[in-house]
Amino acid sequence: MVYLAFSVMCLIFGTTFLAIKWGIDAGLPPFFGGGLRFFLAGLILYSFMLWRGRATLSLLLRKEMMLTGLGLTFGTFASLYWAEQYVSSGIAAVLSATGPIMILLLGSVTLRTKVNPLALAGCLLGFGGVLLLLLPGVADPVGPLWISACLIILVGEVFYAGGALYSKQVANRFKEVSPIALNAAQMMYGGAGLLLISLFTEKVHGDSLLNPHALYSLLYLIVIGSMVAHSLFYWLVVKTTPLFPSTWLYISPVIALAIGTVLYKEPVSLTTLIGVLVILTGLILVNAPALRQLLRRKPSVPKAEQLQS
Fold it and tell me: Which alpha helices (H) appear in 140-211, and where do they start and end?
């Protein structure tokens, strides 16, 4: 059951990037679509947790929820949704996989955590892979805009890193609260922020919401991408270890790249494939100590640890 849940989660996370692209191409304004997705998903999940007695309304008044939502949802997905207007879903997925590298670097700067040589080599290798990904856009006539979108995704991952580091502190402060409730609360705040920026920067037309492709994309991202996948993630955290479900980062970008190529005819060059391989190799080196620890354990062993990320 654990491996089935993990496989489904990886597949879902791998398809969300194409679902975002599909909705944007169908005319759904990026900030509005992202805001609606996360606010509604968070609202439904939080309402369920309230009904189960696993959360209280007072939690929504805590500044920690707003600050976590600013990093994990607003900053991360404002960048991603905007950028997917100009880059393929596969490239967006691979660049988004640099999150752990950003966490390592940001943690070393802000928390003064020591970076071992292997992890540092992984960071350098990962950014080398990013440069390889950017090469095709340099020679393209629309290169500057394409490159800007790629860089914006990386900026979003810096927001994600800050939110992830801060959320660990928040989880320790709210140990009595379900991680699912904490995640739902931050999604609501992040989604509200995206809707607010949409109000000032986008014109939302009813026709775009009535477009079947846009509607299907939005429903898929709300129900499957946000509610089901994140619930599977936290279920796996409880049943295994916090690290095991996080290894989706090594699998889902490859799935996203393949699905985008097969279903959406997104072009993939040899340079891109080499860049993907280099980034994933760097990612493995960054997490090498934790991965070695994971390989010594059986993922099916129940563990009561919970993680808010």
Answer: 143-173, 179-201, 206-210
